[in-house]
Structures are given as C-alpha cells and as structure tokens.
Specification:
The protein is mainly alpha-helical. 89% of the residues lie in helices and 0% in strands. The chain is built from one helix and no strands. 0% of the residues are buried.
Length: 38
C-alpha cells in the first residue's frame, strides 16, 4: 500500500465519521424541537 492511498483512506474515514456525527446532531436537534414546541 503506498502512502497516498493510505492518506486518502484515512481522510475518507474521518469524513465519514464527521458526516455520521453531523447526522446524529441533526437528529437530536430535530427531536429537541419536537419536544420543546409540541
């Protein structure tokens, strides 16, 4: 495995985790609004 593909794999892994975290926060925010404004 050469260095460039390793870096790309790591970067895509971090990007994937960041997107999951963002979706998780969006979901919490959505439910929070439902509870607060219901």
């Amino acid at each position: 495995m050469n260095h460039h593909s390793y870096v790309a794999m790591v970067e895509s892994g971090y990007l994937y985790r960041f997107q999951c975290l963002e979706a998780f926060i969006d979901t919490i925010g959505f439910y929070f609004h439902l509870i607060m404004f219901s």
